[in-house]
Amino acid sequence: MKKTILNSSILLVISFFLFSCKKPKISFDLAKQELTECSNYGLKEVTIDNDSIDKKGFAVELPIILKWEGNTPTPRKISFNNVLKYYKITKDGKRLVSLKLMKNASYKISYHIIGKQDTEIKVWTNKNGKIYKATNENCDER
């Protein structure tokens, strides 16, 4: 009886670590201009960091932060063409009306979940500021 309880406890602990350590994953659909969270956690807070630098070696743009402030479950997708009104979009602590990316730039998009390892992808914008390339374009890639 004690051995069964011990084995069950060990199995429970192992299962907890295997399933709770699942790393969140994001992808970017180029045709839809849409960020997707692939692991069913929802996109609560996303950082979009322009990693381009100027001739003096300084960042050309401060990070953009999207934070969900709605009372409904956090969405798994964010359309970069039309960000939902419940996302607070900020740059340097100032609220932005819409999300606009710089032309001909590269960005690192990071996704944060408390208690989980951060995940990120890299994207590149074209002459119109639209993303044309991403390191992860669908949830099946890795």
- Helical proportion, percent range: 10-25%
Unreliable spans are: 11-19
Strand percentage lies at: 25-35%
Largest sheet: 7 strands, antiparallel
> What is the number of domains?
1
Query: Could you give the count of β-strands?
Result: 10
C-alpha-based Rg, rounded: 19 Å
The best one-word shape is globular
* Number of H/I helices: 1
Report strand order across the widest sheet. Answer: 7-6-4-3-8-9-10
Order of helices and strands, N to C? HEEEEEEEEEE
Distance separating the two termini: 44 Å
Mean pLDDT: 86
Structural class: alpha+beta
Question: Keywords, please?
Answer:
alpha+beta; 1 helix; 7-stranded antiparallel beta sheet
Explain this structure.
- The chain has one domain (23-134).
- The strands form 2 sheets. It has a 7-stranded antiparallel sheet, with no helix packed on it. It has a 3-stranded antiparallel sheet with strand order 1-2-5, with no helix packed on it.
- The radius of gyration is 19 Å and the shape is globular.
- The chain is α+β, with helices and mostly antiparallel strands and 142 residues long.
- The protein has 1 helix and 10 strands.
Question: In short, what is this structure?
Answer:
The protein is an alpha+beta fold and 142 residues long.
Helices and strands in order:
Layout: H1 2-20, E1 26-29, E2 34-37, E3 45-50, E4 64-68, E5 77-79, E6 87-91, E7 94-95, E8 106-111, E9 119-125, E10 131-134
